[in-house]
């Protein structure tokens, strides 16, 4: 097979492992900087060009698109879909998962456990918004934040009002969420490939830090998840329409609640913690499922 890997940095651990896994299984894989791809959008013969040449003959595309380039990156994935190339994750599914508000609404409609979440536009709604999510402490999230950036824990009502007012004053869109105290600064990353949770790890934030992101100094260890947590992760992945993703879950007093569904989950933490060949599992999934024109949405929105 000929596989395109959309990655802005071929030296990143996740990119290197996918390249190694593909080559070990006899496939040709080409790394493409998604921002250097450009498109000819025309009837019946859509094209993608890269460094002056038309990209042809690909059987599958693996999107590894950073949050800051979601709009352009999903447009490139969509163009591959228009050409009939099989996407590991479809453009519309990536767009769904990257929009935190949309993702929460979709998960809520399916009855999947979530922290109580509020969203508002005007400063005069703030007091009722705080009350709506159960009061303080609460978590305030920028819709555009990633890897724990733009996430604030407000421990008092006055602090919450000040932070929300500041964000809204800058025309920033924010979510206000219930703080799951019993999680103790930890979460569970369930790594989903196809219809299976192929690995899971517990991420623990540093002492005094409520965010468990490994990028922020958190640690990771192998964990055995419950049947309910497994069902929650699979249902969340299916709701987003993602074939491969990381589902981040908190253990709350009322059961598992989903914090995020990540369409480009990193491989280093999960492979190190579980000692599993996740990259190889992803390539095997592509081998079994990649067929010309096999996209559920046909590039639609």
How many domains comprise the coordinates?
3
Q: Termini distance?
A: 28 Å
Give the rounded overall mean pLDDT. 91
Shape: globular
CATH architecture of the largest domain: 2-Layer Sandwich
User: What structural class do you assign from the helix and strand content?
Assistant: alpha+beta
Secondary structure: number of strands:
16
Strand residue percentage: 25-35%
Strand order of the largest sheet: 14-13-12-15-16
Count, helices: 9
Query: What string, H for helix and E for strand, traces the elements in order?
Result: EHEEEEEHEHHEHEEHEEEEHEEHH
Provide the CATH superfamily of the largest domain: ATP-grasp fold, B domain
Report low-confidence residues grouped into runs of 5 or more. Answer: none
Q: Summarize the main sheet.
A: 5 strands, antiparallel
Radius of gyration, whole Å: 20 Å
CATH class of the largest domain: Alpha Beta
CATH topology heading of the largest domain: D-amino Acid Aminotransferase, Chain A, domain 1
Q: How much helix, percentage-wise, in residues?
A: 25-40%
């Amino acid at each position: 097979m000929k596989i395109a890997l959309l990655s802005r940095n071929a030296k990143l651990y996740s990119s290197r492992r996918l390249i190694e896994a593909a080559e070990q299984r006899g496939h040709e894989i080409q790394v493409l900087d998604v921002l250097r791809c450009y498109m000819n959008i025309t009837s019946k013969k859509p094209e993608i060009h890269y460094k002056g040449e038309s990209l042809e003959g690909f059987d599958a595309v693996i999107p590894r698109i950073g949050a800051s380039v979601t709009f352009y990156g999903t447009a490139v994935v969509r163009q591959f879909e228009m050409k009939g190339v099989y996407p590991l994750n479809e453009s519309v599914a990536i767009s769904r998962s990257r929009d935190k508000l949309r993702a929460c609404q979709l998960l809520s409609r399916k009855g999947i456990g979530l922290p109580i979440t509020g969203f508002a536009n005007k400063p005069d709604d703030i007091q009722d918004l705080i009350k709506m999510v159960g009061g303080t402490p609460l978590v305030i999230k920028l819709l555009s934040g990633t890897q724990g950036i733009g996430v604030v824990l407000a421990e008092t009502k006055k602090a919450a009002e000040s932070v929300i007012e500041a964000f809204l004053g800058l025309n920033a869109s924010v979510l206000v969420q219930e703080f799951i105290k019993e999680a103790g600064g930890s979460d569970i990353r369930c790594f989903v490939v196809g219809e299976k949770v192929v690995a899971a790890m517990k991420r623990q934030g540093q002492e005094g830090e409520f965010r468990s992101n490994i990028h922020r100094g958190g640690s990771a260890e192998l964990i055995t998840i419950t049947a309910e947590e497994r069902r929650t992760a699979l249902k969340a992945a299916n709701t987003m329409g993602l074939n491969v993703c990381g589902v981040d879950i908190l253990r709350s007093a009322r059961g598992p609640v989903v914090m995020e569904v990540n369409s480009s989950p990193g491989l280093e933490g999960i492979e190190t913690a579980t000692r599993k060949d996740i990259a190889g599992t992803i390539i095997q999934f592509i081998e079994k499922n990649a067929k010309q024109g096999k996209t559920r949405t046909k590039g639609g929105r």
